[in-house]
């Protein structure tokens, strides 16, 4: 036993130096057990992640709501994180398998003569299969992670594009921290994305400055600067010289110069940007994203060129006497900085939006850029209105009378002010998208209306100048075709109307299609009521979007109908050989039929199905049968009067003891103006069913007949010559047929003579007879001829007897 204890003691003393090594080994074993990879069931989790990714893609494909897209974006980012976590869990397991395979070593080659046991071979094959599965799982996890990240980028692009149409989206007031958060507290990698894209732009600039390309870049840049400055100036001066020296005198010079000013400014700006595009992107190694960015800037230059060009054409501060609209010099000078300022604002902020889209920045950054755009454009709109009013008030204080504003100008200024106020209000309450839409729609409408005004003036002035006989072109056309000057005026008016109609259609299409990447106003309003879309109003099958289109059709149709009616009344029909009555009847008939067609077109666009309105038709039938039959009868009679024209506007008619001039034939009644300027309203059915005397139908002449009674002892020949002389000397009496005197009767009271003469119109009979009677009585008294005194018999009672007293004489 002592020997055994001695042996154990010696062994313990021998192990004492090994205690630190054993403790370290134990710690390493504990550390290895704690760092051991967590077993993950990738075979189960990866299919679930793939299903989630597919489900998110499916939901994104048909979604437009910003809040739901934001939720889906968060789900995509979370999915990307889960896929990355799963992948990080698989990598250590794969490394462990790789270590076990390294221990086993590679399989021996047959020529080496070394044989291993079947157990080792089976173990190696099992490990290799597990390693292959893990490699596939890692690739699948990387694909899911990349798909989720790409899906998140697509969702951000969808949200950015949806901001242009989702007007009801409240993104936060401009006075709130949410709006300014992307600038001071960025929560995304926007700065890195923008820096990367700016780096690509810098690399493009460096490529354009490499040897062999440097000279061309300098030439293109210099050419762009020359075109934008000297080229625009000299081209404008050349066109002004053409207008002054080659075009005929008249309004055509003014409208041509305005159009030339706008077009030269537009051409100079667009050419300059195209040259800059060629200077920096003509290298083959330029990235596609940079080329797309440059192409969008070139397209943007067209809009900015239109803004600047139209502003210079309207204000025309260098040639005030050639200014197309009626604007005073003081107002034009005050408004001069605003067109280039507006063009610069549009270019800068549209460039920022294009940059955000190219760099795939977050929605918050896009909203910030949109809000700043709307803020500055709205402030510019209010500044235009305020400065205009201030300049006009200053002119009044200085005793200078400002130009008289037309109703259209007043409406335009009011609209600019109201839109500017609306932009500011929507920014304050947080509707940034709506403010951005209003800002760009205001600018786009200004471009469309400005272009329409200048082009319509150019078309009208050009047609009038081309067919005017005061100009060589009109004289040449008249000699070649041998037509009357009046016909040339008609052709000019007709061609001008056709040109303006085409311009109106083009302007309407431009307004409905819109620009700046926004949807049409109709689509925007449809989305605001999308919960109604497609369902309709059940039985009538009326969709609210169709109702909006129908209302728009009615407004545009009525405006076009009134414009055409006004053109017919003022411009075209007065140049024809139609009389005034025929013109009024034609215009009235055209207007009535036009209103009916516009109304039916509106109902058709609204989708109203007449078979669904059987109850309304039945009710109308009953109403027509009882209470509306007179209205319908008068309406049909009015159409008959306008087509058959038994009476027309301007005719002198007599009906039911009423005599007067027809002033207007409406669809229900006719207005007859009496001699005392009062008006009688006669239902149209009476003019059809009763006897009507039309004194002026067929250009009838008036007959002025005066019947006089002379004593028996006069000289009939003398009196006849005297009466004929008076009639012949009166300027209203026509020479053909000649005046005549007829012996009407011979009575106890004397000789009855009637003198007759014709006047050009029945309306002149009364005035002519009055003048003739004055002249006849004066001449008869001068010649000593008296008229016969009427004989009166009075029976008086004298001394119980009846006595006849003639001529009122009472015997003494």
UniProtKB/TrEMBL annotation:
It is found in: Cell membrane. Residues 108-134 are annotated as: Disordered. The lineage of its organism: Bacteria, Pseudomonadati, Pseudomonadota, Gammaproteobacteria, Enterobacterales. GO terms for cellular component: plasma membrane. Belongs to the MscS (TC 1.A.23) family. The keyword Glycoprotein does not apply. It comes from the Bacteria. It is a multi-pass membrane protein. Keywords: Cell membrane, Membrane, Signal, Transmembrane, Transmembrane helix. Residues 631-696 form the Mechanosensitive ion channel MscS domain. Residues 1-25 form the signal peptide. Residues 112-134 have a biased composition (Basic and acidic residues). The chain crosses the membrane at residues 256-276, 296-315, 367-386, 407-431, 443-467, 488-512, 542-561, 582-607. This is Mechanosensitive ion channel protein. GO terms for molecular function: mechanosensitive monoatomic ion channel activity. Residues 138-198 form the DUF3772 domain. Residues 705-785 form the Mechanosensitive ion channel MscS C-terminal domain.
């Amino acid at each position: 036993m002592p020997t055994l204890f001695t042996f154990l003691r010696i062994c313990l003393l021998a192990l004492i130096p090994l205690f630190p090594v054993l403790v370290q080994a134990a710690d390493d074993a504990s550390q290895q057990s704690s760092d051991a990879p967590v077993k993950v069931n990738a075979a189960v989790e990866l299919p679930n992640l793939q299903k989630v990714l597919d489900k998110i893609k499916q939901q994104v494909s048909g979604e437009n709501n910003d809040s739901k897209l934001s939720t889906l974006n968060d789900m995509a980012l979370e999915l990307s994180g889960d896929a990355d976590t799963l992948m990080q869990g698989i990598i250590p397991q794969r490394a462990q398998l790789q270590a076990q395979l390294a221990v086993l070593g590679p399989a021996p080659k047959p020529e080496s003569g070394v044989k291993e046991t079947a157990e080792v071979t089976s173990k190696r094959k099992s490990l290799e299969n597990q390693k292959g599965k893990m490699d596939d799982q890692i690739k699948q996890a990387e694909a899911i992670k990349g798909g989720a990240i790409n899906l998140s980028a697509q969702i951000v692009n969808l949200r950015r594009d949806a901001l242009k149409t989702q007007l009801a989206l409240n993104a936060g007031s401009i006075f709130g921290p949410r709006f300014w958060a992307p600038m001071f507290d960025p929560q995304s990698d926007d700065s890195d994305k923008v820096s990367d894209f700016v780096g690509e732009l810098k690399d493009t600039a460096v490529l354009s400055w490499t040897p062999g390309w440097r000279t061309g870049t300098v030439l293109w840049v210099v050419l762009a600067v020359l075109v934008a400055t000297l080229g625009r100036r000299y081209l404008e001066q050349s066109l002004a010289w053409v207008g002054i020296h080659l075009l005929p005198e008249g309004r055509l010079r003014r409208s041509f110069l305005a159009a030339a000013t706008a077009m030269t400014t537009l051409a100079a700006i667009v050419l300059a940007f195209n040259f800059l595009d060629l200077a920096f992107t003509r290298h083959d190694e330029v990235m596609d994203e940079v080329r797309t960015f440059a192409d969008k800037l070139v397209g943007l230059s067209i809009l900015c060129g239109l803004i600047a060009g139209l502003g210079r054409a309207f204000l025309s501060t260098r040639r005030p006497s050639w200014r197309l609209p009626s604007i005073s010099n003081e107002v034009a000078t005050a408004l001069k900085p605003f067109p280039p300022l507006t063009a610069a604002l549009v270019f800068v902020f549209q460039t920022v939006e294009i940059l955000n889209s190219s760099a795939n920045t977050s929605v918050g950054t896009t909203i910030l850029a949109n809000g700043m755009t709307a803020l500055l454009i709205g402030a510019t709109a209010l500044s235009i209105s305020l400065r205009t009013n201030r300049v006009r008030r200053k002119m009044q204080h200085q005793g200078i009378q400002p130009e008289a504003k037309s109703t259209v100008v007043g409406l335009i200024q009011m609209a600019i002010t109201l839109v500017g106020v609306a932009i500011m209000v929507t920014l304050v309450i947080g509707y940034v998208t709506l403010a951005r839409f209003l800002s760009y729609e205001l600018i786009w409408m200004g471009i469309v209306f400005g272009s329409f005004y200048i082009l319509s003036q150019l078309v009208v002035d050009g047609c009038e100048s081309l067919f005017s006989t005061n100009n060589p072109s009109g004289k040449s056309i008249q000699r070649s075709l041998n037509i009357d000057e009046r016909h040339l005026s008609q052709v000019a008016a007709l061609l001008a109307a056709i040109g303006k109609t085409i311009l109106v259609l083009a302007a309407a299409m431009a307004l409905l299609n819109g620009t700046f990447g926004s949807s049409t106003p109709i689509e925007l309003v449809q989305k605001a009521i999308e919960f109604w879309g497609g369902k309709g109003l059940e039985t009538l099958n009326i969709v609210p979007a169709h109702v909006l289109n129908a209302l728009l059709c009615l407004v545009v149709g009525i405006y076009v109908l009134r414009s055409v009616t006004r053109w017919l009344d003022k411009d075209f029909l007065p140049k024809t050989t139609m009389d005034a009555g025929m013109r009024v009847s034609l215009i009235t008939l055209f207007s009535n039929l036009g209103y009916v067609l516009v109304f039916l077109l509106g109902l058709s666009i609204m989708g109203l199905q007449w078979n669904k309105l059987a109850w309304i038709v039945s009710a109308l039938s009953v109403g027509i049968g009882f209470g509306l039959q007179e209205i319908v009868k008068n309406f049909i009679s009015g159409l008959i009067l306008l087509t058959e024209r038994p009476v027309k506007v301007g005719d002198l008619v007599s009906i039911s003891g009423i005599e007067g001039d027809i002033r207007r034939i409406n669809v229900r009644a006719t207005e007859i103006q009496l001699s005392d300027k009062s008006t009688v309203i006669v239902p149209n059915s009476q003019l059809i069913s009763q006897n009507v005397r039309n004194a002026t139908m067929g250009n009838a002449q008036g007959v002025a007949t005066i019947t006089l009674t002379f004593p028996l002892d006069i000289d009939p020949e003398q009196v006849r010559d005297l009466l004929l002389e008076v009639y012949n000397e009166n300027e209203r009496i026509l020479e053909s047929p000649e005046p005549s005197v007829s012996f009407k009767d011979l009575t106890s009271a004397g000789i009855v003579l009637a003198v007759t003469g014709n006047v050009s119109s029945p309306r002149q009979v009364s005035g002519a007879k009055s003048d003739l009677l004055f002249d006849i009585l004066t001449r008869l008294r001068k010649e000593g001829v008296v008229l016969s005194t009427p004989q009166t018999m009075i029976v008086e009672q004298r001394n119980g007897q009846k006595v006849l007293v003639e001529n009122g004489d009472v015997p003494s």
